[in-house]
What does this fold into?
Amino acid sequence: MNAIIENPAILEVESIQAGYNGREVLRGVTVTVAPGECLALIGPNGCGKSTLFRVVAGRLRPSHGNVRLGGVSLDRMPTDARIRAGLGYLKQTKNLFAGLTVEENLYLAAESVDAKIDAADRMGKLLNAFPLLADTRDKRAGLLSGGQRQSLAVAMVLMRPPKVLLLDEPVAGLSATTGEGLLKALKTLRDEEGFATIIVEHRLRQVQPYVDRVLVMREGRIVDDTADTERMLDAGWLAGHFLNGNGNHAPSSTAT
It folds into this structure.
């Protein structure tokens, strides 16, 4: 009889404690992500979602705990080494070079991570994957529309095929139609390439169809972990997690 071998976690975040200037923000956060899995990380403003991303990306050193990617510890790796190891990280702001063309931005992204890929082929695939980037190769990034800029920012992160992709509010500020197009393109690439994804996003109804599991963070801790993604549309369930003494409120279950 052949033994059944479960897929090991591609990302393991174990007992992370971290904060700023002596103020603890993350209080023992543990998260595991399977290859190809897409997680939604949700919770009230200030609960620690972006701080957790900063720790995983190596931009903030935790006081306790560790992070492993594909079983390899990232604890002593700077951000650029983590990217080379297979971590993709889309920040909320300052994620492209306005004075450079789309093509120049993409080539720069490939060079910055020493990608061992054919950059021209990879760029062609990504330009085809994001419809809003069609016919924009020679256009300066600063002249792009909001949807085009966000598509370019995501494409830059993907120039080196990641093992795990962190997306911090990828559809914030975009129209519903533009955001939907971006999420569909990302799902197509994820299905083809098998990378795992963690999404932090407030537009829950829009991202719900694309996620496999929901983690809820509150006051620096993971307080719920469910594969029932329909709960993201349940106003009562959301209110139970989002309403607190600091005046944070649950996002509308009908929000896009």
Q: What stands out?
A: Confidence is low (pLDDT under 50) at residues 1-5, 252-256.
